[in-house]
Amino acid sequence: MDAEERLRLRPRPDPEAAHHETRDALIDRSDPEHPKEAGWPEADVIIGNPPFLGGKLLRRGLGDDYVELLFRTFDGRVPREADLVAYCHVLDQRQRQVAQAMDAVLRG
């Protein structure tokens, strides 16, 4: 399994689950001309263990094209020499902010 495959969201199949996905956890490339941050599904808990790919290991593990896309997508929010898990923290923080905002709206 290569590093990009390890990055994919891989929930265990659960016959009782309403929905599960297998895809890139960091970048949504559904529109190749306009890649963007991946949206994460609503969840009570996220369990993951991204591979250690800090600084120089990013390019070796993921390839130049993917790393450049990662840098452009998260420019100004994640330092280029950061470990891969830092990108997950940015998306986790965004998910929490959205959930908090929705909670505030619903509680009114």
Tell me about this structure.
The chain is mainly alpha-helical and 108 residues long. The chain has one domain (3-107). It is 42% helix and 4% strand. It contains four helices and two strands. It has helices at 3-7, 56-62, 64-73, 85-107, and strands at residues 27-28, 36-37. The chain has a two-stranded antiparallel sheet. A hairpin with a 7-residue loop joins strand 1 and strand 2 (36-37). Helix 2 (56-62) crosses helix 3 (64-73). The longest helix has 23 residues, at 85-107. The chain is globular, with a radius of gyration of 15 Å. The chain starts with a helix and ends with a helix.
Summarize the structure.
The protein is mainly α. The chain has helices at 3-7, 56-62, 64-73, 85-107, and strands at 27-28, 36-37.
Radius of gyration, CA atoms, in whole angstroms: 15 Å
Structural class by secondary-structure content: mainly alpha
The level of helicity is 40-55%
Distance between the termini: 47 Å
Strand order of the largest sheet: 1-2
Write a concise keyword list for the protein shown above.
2 strands, two-stranded antiparallel ribbon, mainly alpha
